[in-house]
From TrEMBL:
Pfam families: Alpha_L_fucos. This is alpha-L-fucosidase. Its EC number is 3.2.1.51. It is an enzyme of class 3 (hydrolase). Residues 1-23 form the signal peptide. It comes from Snuella sedimenti. The lineage of its organism: Bacteria, Pseudomonadati, Bacteroidota, Flavobacteriia, Flavobacteriales.
Length: 444
């Protein structure tokens, strides 16, 4: 074989082996792509759309027949975004201690908040705002050093070629050509969104069609080929990266090691001024701690007004969260799930190297705190965000028994946080627990 031929052969071999690699194999490994997500702990979700004009349920209000589609769409005329300040939004999100944010680029109502070329149902062509609302936000988020997430509803109840219109009315049930038109439209919009180079795609509405119909696998490879570092939530019919329990805090640790609880501040995703059922800042901090203790994130939602201002109650919650997260940074970001419940009567987490055990005290203790079954020697205990060293004592250890003694920690009132106090317990190595049923004396 000549030199020229062997080079040619090598070239052919190389390119064919590359094209043979499946899309999955070419992906950046999950652990690498999701590393920032696992450390992030807090994200802010934003549901902004025309539904804020009447202050009604996002998309569902017409789907469920509480308002006609025509009347719902009239809200476009009131969606003016005239006080929209994306830099302020991003700085407020940063102040809350969140590391990422996810904004609705298009909800189930089909109204795109960017200048999509796939249809004129967008805020540039049809809303009073007359502009692309996503680009300036994407820029502001990146300027603040936050990760950018884009929410996108796969289903689109307003699209003329999407089969479902309302709960009781379908446009068609089986029409391959129309479906194909819609599918192309979806791919077109998703391709447009890749230009924002998002760190996360947050899908929703996948339940109405199968993975095959959405071409979920192809959506995943499209996004990962255009934005290879990105991550995808689970609502892509089995082709996502992480789990998204909604509203209810999980009672036990979810199976997927990557997860995020998405939750509203009151009972609405979008702006609804008559919904005053806000959780308190204290309750939200405790929910955040609950997620942290199970190794997950909290994606907390805000619903801005149609003019782009953020309701006062929501600003206050974000700032209150900011006070607490800023003080307790060390015990939040990059932590891992804590120890099993029987060892401490409350939430716990571990540092990444498992040598610091964090205790979150969300009630006023009625005596010293207690840790049971800890085999490690303790090197030091202090109050996070304050530094005060705390006295502690191990009692009840028997020389003949493997059961560790009871570790009591004094927590004076003067160092307690008004929301959740955090205690750091520095161990002599990786946490080592005795979790058995106990031991009786065998012989002596
Ligand atoms: C649900 C709803 C939707 C909301 C979303 C947020 O899937 O359909 O209205 O945006 O939850 O998680």
């Amino acid at each position: 074989m000549t030199y020229k031929n062997s080079i040619l052969l090598l070239f052919i071999l190389l390119t064919s082996s590359l094209t043979n690699l499946s899309a999955q194999e070419q992906e950046i490994p999950k652990a690498e792509r999701l590393a920032w997500f696992k450390d992030a702990k807090l994200g802010i979700f934003i549901h902004w759309g025309i539904y804020a004009v009447n202050g009604i349920d996002e998309s569902w209000s017409f789907f469920n027949g509480y308002i006609s589609h025509d009347d719902y769409m009239k809200q476009l005329n009131g969606f003016n975004a005239k006080n929209y300040d994306p830099n302020y939004w991003a700085s407020l999100i940063k102040e809350s201690g969140a590391k990422y944010t996810v904004i609705t680029t298009k909800h189930h109502d089909g109204v795109a908040l960017w200048d999509t070329k796939q249809s004129d149902l967008n805020t540039v062509d049809k809303a009073k705002a007359k502009r692309d609302l996503i680009s300036p936000f994407a820029q502001a988020v990146k300027n603040e050093g936050l990760k950018l997430g884009l929410y996108y509803s796969l289903l689109d109840w307003s699209h003329p070629d999407y089969p479902n219109f309302t709960r009781n009315k379908k446009r068609y049930s089986d029409d391959a050509d129309r479906w194909e038109k819609f599918r192309k439209f979806n791919f077109g919009q998703l391709k447009e969104l890749t230009r924002y180079n998002p760190d996360l795609y947050w899908f929703d509405g996948d339940w109405e069609q199968s993975a095959e119909k959405w071409k979920a696998k192809e959506i995943r490879s499209l996004l990962l080929s255009k934005t290879p570092h990105t991550i995808i939530n689970s609502r892509l019919q089995g082709y996502g990266d992480y789990a998204t329990p909604e509203q209810g805090v999980p009672i036990s640790k979810p199976d997927n090691e990557y997860w995020e609880l998405c939750m509203t501040m009151n009972n609405s995703w979008g702006y609804q001024p008559n919904d005053t059922t806000y959780k308190s800042t204290n309750q939200i901090i405790r929910i955040l701690v609950d997620c942290i203790s199970m190794g997950g994130n909290l994606l907390l939602d805000i619903g801005p007004k149609p003019d782009g201002t953020i309701p006062k109650e929501q600003v206050e919650i974000l700032q209150g969260l900011g006070r607490w997260t800023n003080k307790h940074k060390a015990a939040i970001y990059g932590t891992r799930a804590g120890i099993p419940h029987g060892h401490f009567n409350g939430y716990t987490a571990l540092s990444k190297d498992k040598k610091i055990l964090y205790l979150y005290v969300d009630n006023k203790p009625n005596g010293p705190l207690l840790i049971k079954g800890l085999k490690n020697k303790v090197n030091r205990i202090w109050v996070v965000g304050n530094g005060t060293k705390l006295p502690y004592k191990v009692v009840g250890k028997q020389y003949w028994s493997a059961v560790p003694g009871l570790l009591y920690i004094d927590l004076p009132e003067s160092v307690q946080d008004k929301d959740v106090t955090v205690i750091a317990v520095l161990l002599d190595g990786e946490v080592d627990l005795y979790s058995e049923a106990g031991q009786k004396i065998e012989s002596n």
